[in-house]
Amino acid sequence: MRFKMNLWLMRGTFLLAVVLVSGFCFSPYGKNDISSLIITLVLGAVFGGLVIFIEFRMHKLEVKSMLGAIGGVLVGAITANLVSLVVARMDFSSPMTHTLILFAMIYIGLICGIYGGSRVKWTASSGMFTEDSIRKTSKILDTSVIIDGRMADICKTGFLEGALIVPHFVLRELQQIADSADSAKRNRGRRGLDVLEKIKSAQSVMVQIIEKDYPDVKEVDLKLIELAKEINGKIVTNDFNLNKVAQLRGVDALNINELANSLKPVVLPGETMRVFILKEGKEYNQGVAYLDDGTMVVVDNARRMIGKTIITQVTSVLQTTAGKMIFGRFPEEPEVHGSTPQNPRSDRRFYERRPSDMEPVDDDRERS
Hints:
single chain; alpha/beta; Rossmann fold; CATH 2.40.50; 3 domains; 5-stranded mixed beta barrel; 12 strands; about 45% helix
C-alpha cells in the first residue's frame, strides 16, 4: 500500500514538473501572452498524461517485450537518421519531413521490438533466443494432474518433450490445499507437493516455475487457459471440465485419463487371462473381477470361485461411454490334458496358464 502511494506521488510530481517546464520554457507565442501560456500548460499536461499512460501499459508487458521495445526504438532511430541523410539530398527535404521520418521509424521499431521480444525466451540452460516452435512443446501442469501422481511416472519414461511449466498460482493453490483444516485435503496437497518434487528430479524433463499471474482472472482454470494462449502451450490435466472449456477456448489440452485409456491392454475374444474373482455378478452363476486399470471382467460359471484367482477365456469385449467391459467364461468341467487330477471333486482350485493349455492345479484339496 505504501509503495502504491509513493508511486502515485512520483507520478504527480512528474506531471507537475512537465506542466511547469512547458509553461515557462516552451511558450511558442511569447511569454507575456496569457492565451499562449494556457495552451502550453494544456499541451504539457497532455504530454505528461500520455507518458503516465504509457507507463501504465508497460506494467502489463513482460521483461523480454520491454527489452525488445527498447532495442526496436534504438534501431528505428538509427534507421531514421540514415533515411534522413538520403532524403536531405532531395528537393522535397524539409525539417517536417525529417521529423515525420523519425516518428515513423521509431514507431515501427517499437512495434517490431515488442512483437519480436515476445518470441524470445530466456532459459538458464540454453540461453536466450529460443525459437517459438519450441514453445509450442511446452506443457502447463494443472493442480489436479500434479496431485494425481501419474505425471511423475510418465516423466520417468522419457516420452515427454519440451518444458513442463508450473505457474506460481498453481503452486499457491497446492499450498492452500496442503494447509487446509480438512485432513483429506491436507493429505492431497502434501501429496501434490511430493509429486512435484519427483517430477523436478526426473532427468528427462525440464521444469520451469514462472511468476506469471492474471489478477483480473479469479479462477485457476481460466488463468491456465490465458497462460496457454499467451505462450502457445498445452495444458496437461485430468479434469474433464477443464479439458472441454480449454477446447472451446481454442487451447490444446492433454488429458492423462485419455492417455491411460488408450494404453489399456487390448483383449480379443478367444484369449485367456488371469483374474481374481472379487464378487458375484448380477446374473445367475456370474463372478466379477477387475483388472489393475479398473476394467470390469464378468465371468460366467465363476460364482463358486469367489475369492480365488482363475484363468478365464474371453468371449466378448464391450466398449461403452463409461469404459470397457470384458466378458469371459469359466468352464465348469475343465478339460485336463495328459493326466487326470487326483481329486476331481475339489471345488477350491487355482487355475494357471500352462504352455500347452489350461490345466487345473489343486491349491487346497478338500477330502470328503
